[in-house]
Each structure stands twice: as structure tokens, then as C-alpha cells.
């Protein structure tokens, strides 16, 4: 999380009054605020100290919740639903298209470090299948052509907030 200053990290922690019951929300906000896309050791130590829990407790949260990462992530982590309703409603189009466009399998980062895609449990967007979720934004009802366009737009930096 080299791109976040200690003050920026503390501001996020202060948003939750350094409440230990909000440690998960703090970690998620820190990860989303960072372009690195993961919680590094120094940040985990800072959160533990500020909210008054052990570092072990912070790593329990990081390792339990799939949304949290402790290793460098691709610039864009594309999430595709792997629940049964989505599998029968068009999700295979997304995984096939991403494999073809990006040239990597699920859970593999592209050589340029820009993309990684992986399955996630149901996010309650079954009516919008096939979709791709990036951070908290859902790109719904995708066609193969729209997936190509989305990847092109991401490469061009057309979604700076993601």
C-alpha cells in the first residue's frame, strides 16, 4: 500500500472511530483505496494497533474473507459469479470470453499485471447475468462484444475510479 500515506490510512481508520468491530470494513476500505489492491504487513500492523486487536486477528479476517487480499493483485480484478443460477443464465460466456481476450485462465494474472478474473459466490445480481463485477461496480447483461469493449476501455483507462 505504498500509494497511501500513513495519514490517509489513519483517516480511513478514524472514519470508523478505530472500532475493533469495524475492522473488516476498515480493511476493505483500505484495500479499495489503494491501487495495490491488497493489505500489506505494515497496514495490517497499523490497523491492529489502532483498533486494539492482535495482528493475528487482522490476518484471520484477511485470510477468511475472499474480498481481502494479502498479495499484489492485478490492476483490475474481474469477478464472475460461479453460483448455479448464473452458470445456467450466461456466466460461461463471460469466462470463455475473458480466457480468449486475456489469454489466461481463471485466477491467473495477465503478463502486464492489468487483469485477473476469478469466480465468486452469489452477489445477488442473478437478474443481470452475464455480468462482471469490478470492485463494487457491476457491468450487467454483457454480450461477447461488450466484454471485448469493456476490456479495451479498461486498458485505455476509461474507468479511473476502478
From TrEMBL:
Is Iron found in the keyword set?
yes
Q: Which InterPro entries match?
A: NuoE-like, NuoE_dom, NuoE_N, Thioredoxin-like_sf
Cofactor info, note text: Binds 1 [2Fe-2S] cluster.
Query: Gene3D superfamilies under this entry?
Result: Glutaredoxin, NADH-quinone oxidoreductase subunit E
This protein's record includes keyword Metal-binding:
yes
One Pfam family name is: 2Fe-2S_thioredx
* Key words of the record: 2Fe-2S, Iron, Iron-sulfur, Metal-binding
Species of origin: Loigolactobacillus coryniformis subsp. coryniformis KCTC 3167 = DSM 20001
What family does the Swiss-Prot or TrEMBL record give for this protein? Belongs to the complex I 24 kDa subunit family.
Residues involved in [2Fe-2S] cluster binding = 81, 86, 122, 126
Protein name per the record: Putative NAD-dependent formate dehydrogenase, gamma subunit
Cofactor(s), names only, from the UniProt record: [2Fe-2S] cluster
Gene Ontology MF, one: NADH dehydrogenase activity
